[in-house]
From TrEMBL:
This is Alpha-galactosidase. The keyword Transport does not apply. Belongs to the glycosyl hydrolase 57 family. PANTHER family: 1,4-ALPHA-GLUCAN BRANCHING ENZYME RV3031-RELATED, 1,4-ALPHA-GLUCAN BRANCHING ENZYME TK1436.
Length: 364
């Protein structure tokens, strides 16, 4: 058994706001409708904010999928905030607001929680358990690399550095890509099956998200050089009780990677090559493992540096402390601090902070 999760966030750092209707048309509608038509179950992790602005046609599709048992709705933070960077009252506010929206619009209460950017610390499971969550999704590679907890003493090195260099266009790109593919295949072999129990302030079960497996799927269905759906399937055919795909729905039909397009039809082709049953993520079996997971994210070095070290990010993080109410949610949106955010996304957070400081009407 293997599972799928699709993450949707219409505050995406690198997508212009005027492109939102196109994103819905090219990604959200075909992915959700074709999976339902093919009777393939999947987890759907859309932010509460995204759910509020999706058109009725998509909401109806999602409800249909829930009713027939093909869609498992997952919780997350309302505006995709990086939870380990927030005060605890704001962590809980993000969690509760997202859950309230999903209960109101979809009439369902999620039991699984997707950590935005898989950013984690050992306090978060306690807050999730306090709010009736039963399990979460966490970075599998960070689990493997949590045997040493002080990154100032021992820095985490990426498992496939050449592939990362190729993605960034550094050096001799094709050579880095070729070497990176070999590194990626070795990283896939490190993935273990099943859920784990995380030793935290309150213990919670977790589904490992294996970035190497996710990347393999994406390279395969995008028909990157040396890769195709059949080859990607052959790399992971021995891996059972795992999450196959767990990233942005926008990559399937809307966004390309280095000029290569992925779509839902290619993903369905890969599933045919695997010739295995797909289950809802909550149905994945437990491995029996118990482990401690360090404060981390699914960045290549497993750190939170992407959202903290840049001067603009540091300023936003500092100014957001102490904010309350609706405007705080938009000041905390992680996509203002994203990998390569657009100015309009960053300005949205600064504007929310300014309006909150001035005491302006939150709906203005």
């Amino acid at each position: 058994m293997r599972a799928l999760v699709f993450h949707g966030n219409l505050q995406y750092a690198e997508i212009p706001k005027n492109e939102i209707p196109t994103v819905i048309e090219k990604a959200y509608f075909p992915v959700i409708s074709k999976l339902i038509k093919a009777e393939i179950p999947f987890g759907l992790n859309v932010t509460g904010y995204t759910l509020e602005i999706l058109p009725n046609e998509i909401i109806s599709l999602i409800k249909e999928g829930i009713e027939v048992g093909l869609i498992e709705i997952l919780g997350t933070s309302y505006t995709h905030a990086i939870l380990p960077l927030l005060p605890l009252n704001r962590v809980e506010a993000q969690v509760q607001k997202d859950k309230e929206v999903k209960e109101k619009i979809l009439d369902t209460s999620p039991k699984g929680f997707w950590l935005p950017e898989l950013a984690y610390d050992p306090l978060i499971p306690a807050i999730l358990k306090d709010n009736s969550y039963e399990y979460l999704f966490a970075d599998g590679e960070a689990m493997l690399l949590s045997n040493h907890l002080n990154s100032a003493i021992r820095h985490i090195k990426p498992l496939y550095p050449h592939l990362i260099r190729a993605q960034r266009g550094e050096g001799f790109v094709y050579l880095n890509y070729f070497l990176g593919i070999r590194e990626l295949k070795r990283a896939v072999k490190l993935a273990f099956s099943g859920k784990v129990a995380l030793e935290a302030v309150k213990e919670i079960d977790a589904v490992p998200v294996w970035v190497a497996i996710n990347t393999t799927i994406m390279l395969g269905i995008g028909n990157f050089p040396l890769m195709n759906p059949k080859k990607a399937a052959s790399w992971i055919k021995e891996k059972d009780e795992i999450l196959l795909y767990g990233t942005d729905i926008e990559f399937l039909g809307y966004r390309d990677i280095a000029g290569y397009k992925m779509n839902i039809d290619s993903l369905l082709m890969l599933l045919d090559h695997l010739n295995d049953t797909v289950c809802l993520p909550s149905e994945l079996k437990h491995s029996g493992r118990r482990l401690y997971l360090r404060t981390s994210s699914w960045a290549p070095d497993k750190s939170l540096d992407i959202w903290t070290k840049d001067e603009g990010n540091a300023r936003l993080n500092m100014l957001s402390i102490g904010l309350e109410g609706e405007l705080a949610f938009f000041a905390e949106n992680s996509d203002a601090r994203g990998w390569e955010p657009l100015p309009e996304r960053r300005l949205d957070a600064f504007k929310a902070i300014y309006k909150s400081w001035r005491g302006e009407d939150e709906k203005s």
